[in-house]
User: Fold these one by one.
Assistant:
Number 1:
Amino acid sequence: MSLTWEPRIVGFACRWCTYAGADLAGTSRLEYPAAIRLIRVPCSGRVNPSFVLRAFQRGADGVLVAGCHPGDCHYTSGNLFTRRRYSLVKRFLEYLGMEPERFRVEWISAAEGHRFAQVVREMTADLRRLGPNRKMREET
Amino acid sequence: MNERQAKLRSIAGSLLAEGRVSLFIGFGPGLEPSRPVPWFAKNADEAGKLVLDPFCGPGLARYLLDETAAGPAGIVARGCDGLGLERLVADKRVGRDQVYVVGVACRGAVDPDKARRLAGRPVFGAEVNGETVALTTAGGRLSFPRSDCLLDRCLACADPSPRTADTWLEEPLPGAQREFEGVEALEKLGPDDRYAFWARHLERCLRCHACRNACPACNCVACSLDNPEWLERTTGLADHFMFHFTRAYHVAGRCVACGECQRACPVGIPLMLLNEKFMKDIRDLFAVPDPHRPQEAEPLGHFSPDDPEGWREGDETL
């Protein structure tokens, strides 16, 4: 850990909604912390739960999975599977000892630039309070 | 000799003699009386050596994967074996018509290690009578509470008999509701204590894959846990977390709670606490009353438009 630790968030963003929402936040000149690194995925249903754990292991302090609102999936039902899956995975990660604030699932549409900025701000504030993640980390 | 065993031998013997099955899977004599081994009888002679006593511990369902290739196989099935078979049939890995099920009413299997430790000397026989277990040793019969002698998985068992069978060795016992007391106790701890608990257990993992190989739900032909792109053959704690997270998630909604993973684990990791966490959440979030019994629709294989968002704070437990 360097003296100037800053939280790092890995964000998995659905290509159709959240990624466009993040774009909107940018083009609207909204300010949000640079802590988040977005990874564009075709659908929130594409995010294998192992990706989430791997992100934590390789240095993420927080992970965000974000996609279209239920009912708005470009592929009709991808995010409905996401909802089922991550309902379980979120609780399972906490059961293994992860703090609840470190992993979030959010629905952010292409029109919700404000929401995207707000989620990143909230998460960054939570992670600043918690400090760097050391749980399940790979030794470096 | 016990009556059940004699009856099983005669049923298996005639099934084999009539050619209705080419193989009968049960238990046979092991190196010690307290450790019967899975037994694959191919003729009436071998069927005459079948064993059925309270030491019959290992799950048998998984053997059907390999053993039904040559033709129909018979199997002696307790509740756990029955659910394992249902799992394999639901996953289309074994045809139900390729299996002849002899159902039994199981009152729990005695853990040979626990019995040896309690008795303090080699144990030759056991009898489960309600809440006590009588162990036969060279020094006479010793009696112990059931909860001290049985395999962990048998203590939590809600399925003494299979749900269906082709013939019954005895009157089947009804199933019960499964409780998740171990999971609830762990949920009450704080995140750091929970992490310490799992780190302490997973640190011991040898990554021998015994839990996966014993599991009737882990029946994929190719397994992602063998793929170095997902998981390298390294043995750090982080990789153990990856392994157990992936294994538990891959059987979420499919685990039949036979407890074979935990029984097979050489270092005693409480693997069922991982599987049961998913079961409990599936029960609570998706209103599946018996998540360990194979469902018409897999809990993670479908969705409902009004599913809850299990990650919302203040939402039921955790």
Number 2:
Amino acid sequence: MPIDLTTVLHTAELARLDLTYGLAPDKAQAALDKLAAEMSGIIGHFDQLSAVDTEGVEPLYSPMLEPLGPREDCPRAGSAPEDLLSQAPERLGHFFAVPKIL
Amino acid sequence: MIEMEPVIGLEIHAQLKTATKLFCSCPVARGDEPNSHICEICSGQPGALPRLNARAVELAARAGLALGAEVNEISIFSRKNYFYPDLPNGFQTSQLDPPICQGGGLAIENQTGGKFIRLNRIHLEDDAGKCLHDEQRGQTLVDLNRAGTPLIEIVTEPDLASSAQAVEFIKKLHEILVHLEVTEGRLEEGEFRCDVNISLRPAGAAYLTTRAEIKNLNSFRHVGQAIEYEIERQTGLYDQGQPVIQETRLFDPARQETRSLRSKEEAHDYRYFTQPDLPPVVVTPARLAALRAALPPLPGQIRSRLLAQGLTGEQAAVLLDRRQAVEYFDLASQIFDQPGRLAALMTELLLPACQRDNISPLEARLTPATLAGLARLMADNTLSRRAAYDLFPELWEKGGDPAALARARGVTQVSDAGAIAALAAEIIAAHPAEVQNYRAGQTKILSFLVGQLMRRSQGAANPKLAGEVLTKMLNE
Amino acid sequence: MTEMTETTELYQLTLTEAAAKLQSREISAQELTAACLDRLESTEPALQACLTVLADQALEDAALLDRAGPDPDQLLWGLPLTFKDIYCTKGVRTSAASRMLRRYIPSYDAEVVTRIKKAGAVVLAKTNLDEFAMGSTTEFSAFGPTRNPWNPAKVPGGSSGGAAASIAACQSPGALGTDTGGSIRQPAALCGCVGLKPTYGRVSRYGLIAYASSLDQPGPLARRVIDCARLLQVMAGPDDRDNTVSTRPVDDYLSARPAPLRGLRLGLPRELWESRLDEETSAILKAALKTLEEAGVELKTLSLPHLPHSVAAYYILATAEASTNLARYDGVRYGHRADDPQSLRDLYVASRSEALGPEVRRRILLGTFALSSGYYDAYFKKAAKVRRLIRDDFFRALEECDFLCSPVSPLTAWDFGKFTDDPLTAYQMDLMTLPVNLAGLPGLSLPAGLAPGGLPVGWQLIGRPFGERDLLGAGLALEEAFPPLT
């Protein structure tokens, strides 16, 4: 299936990616066109699956076998909160801080 | 103008009463320092994996059983993908298809009679953290203590037709889930919150029209008010020939109105798919049977039973409303089977004292056995009602044997027929005129004579017995 | 490469040899660690196999071990090992070769790291990889590629390319990698060493930075099959922090013995053997098959009809899972944050666009597309159905033979830049390895010979679920017939 630019841009927005980030305006369009062509090629390859007869086949989302059951409801210490907070790009006291949400 | 009728469906989020979060072993706790109950899992660190809390599964299944839903042997967790600072993984782990429970419902009663509100589903999911907005700094602050807290989401069919029905429904649902200890249900803590989907359609129509969703209502009153406002708003739109937009709205209790939060055009594409880090949730038929067997009676069933035991509707309601009150009542009535008398003592004395001292009945020093003893002394006329009530404060403080306390205080009633007959003879002898009038037909004088007898006994005589003895002697 | 001679340097010892010498105190942990560090220092400028070298810490840990003395219950006592830089190591930077995590210090150890340390190993270094394990050459590492020890003009394979190159160059006797679509087996083949991808769920993924959760599996790389057995013995088994790990008891891998070649039934998947191989690879492998046949191995060509769809199915499923596994890199709690974001959206978009590399962005985009409204059924769900057909093909084939055997890479190690501008062709290079991940089976990659151009050619054995012990036995037999290259 050929992928048009609108679909590529919409998909990028869903993924919070800017496909022309840091590119000069004159280079941006070329980069987008190239990406759309590339995506079309790859998704075109994916389209071969439509020819596979999967009538009545259950999807297999994971090959896990005899997995572990749920755990008991008992508190247990994990990572130290301060170790986690220390990785924050920006914090205020014990909070993670981000720009204000409108 | 066409008559319009509201069509209302609810989505209720109830926080499950577990010790730990849904996918990690951090404690579920409130009111502590921000980000003090976080680990690599609930803060979404690279490499961390979820491990499901078995208790949460049981509580969700219990809710389903109580609400007549079908509990699925296999249910699946999915990732619901969107970006928000309080969502550490960039996805919420929820259940799409199949959820843990499907179907079921709850009957409500209102002025126009009973109505059965169908449930669509109950599913498990984890809660997000919290964002605080610091206006001064122009920052949003993220606290992940709540992130990963287990929730069930209960989704109704659009079966509700008024704010009164909606409020009745969530009150009843709340009562059941709290009673079953599925949730603590503290509304002010956000442990029980409600989203309302509401639309209007021509009265009697079978189709649905565009709906608005009012998010995050955490009081019964606000649910009612928000629905009332929304009915008015949507009616206004229809009257003006304007379309209702499919959107998410927030209720502002201060201004008593709903406001648009975001319209469907900016809606998310959540890209649900099976969460590959979690195997299917299995509730085996054996496990389900065990859960069903362990299911305590529901409030409705208990109410019927209490009424059958002779309690008034009001007494039953008070007992049901208070934690452990029914258990206390049942223990006491196993010892002394006069339910009405026990219920009166509980509602008039015991439960108010519990409330005052902020303890639950089973924690009181005044045990069910003590209460049963007190009731027995009243029943066999050893204690007058007043004497019993006078003894209560000391029994509440210290517990112990009410008969011994009554003897020590000298407040037992004289219920000895011989002693009372002697007193009656004295009274009859001392009041010849009254006796004569009585015998002439002025039977009301009896209460005067009983009063005289009581006075002479210094209140120790059993008034009922005194009346009987006097009547008998006067009629001889 | 190094010939095994009478005067073997310490760093040349295989893992099993070194373990024995350490236990008998013929050598000390410090001596071996120091020898490996020296070797690392002299080879690293040309290879760039490691992103972080823990020289001081490793020597300190080795000294502590020596003071306590060897413990026969510790299978890896005193052995300096490396971890792919996608295993979280508490207090030690773990980057996944991404600018996003350039300064990320994990607050906890991955389960495999905990187990390996508990078994007495010394952590020597964190090895290079393609960013977030997305790639087959290490060219997508944000910190530059690793070079192939056999020829520095060639790629080492990937994504565990740093691990494979490090092992082949004798920087350490054993390495921990991960395999999502061939990321252990393919670099092992391109660098001429041994790599094992265990059954999905045999080893805990806890603390492994996720690429594609239903495909990722940790595994060992080493210079001998029995070395991999020893590492797997320590790694494998239930872990109460990974809900997908199998509860099945762990076999005794160390007791694996070479399987008799006579009568061994090897299935050759037609769809892989008949796909295009380069001449050198084809020649070496055909000669190798002939040798096996002469030794009495029954070779049986089998058809797994859905294998040609593996690349499409894999790249839909893996990228879809990756697109949401990588949603956590948002600049809020850790990792790269763009300077001075003006809004929340700006924070997300700028941080992610700046710090995620081109291949990672491409895969996120593909995966987001495959899951998005209107495309889910045609791509994601369809691929999951095809995945079942592929697994069923394997199960059927494995009933007709003891193991499947196939090439690992259609080409010997190639030049840098060969496929970087042609992602679809690059993806198709993975055809031999990724069906095994889709099916969740164990696969063992080992050398089949050295091509005339001086580059290794590898092949792989594919076993039944949790059949690692048998697989290792067959590997030991092949290793006897086709001597190790390093």
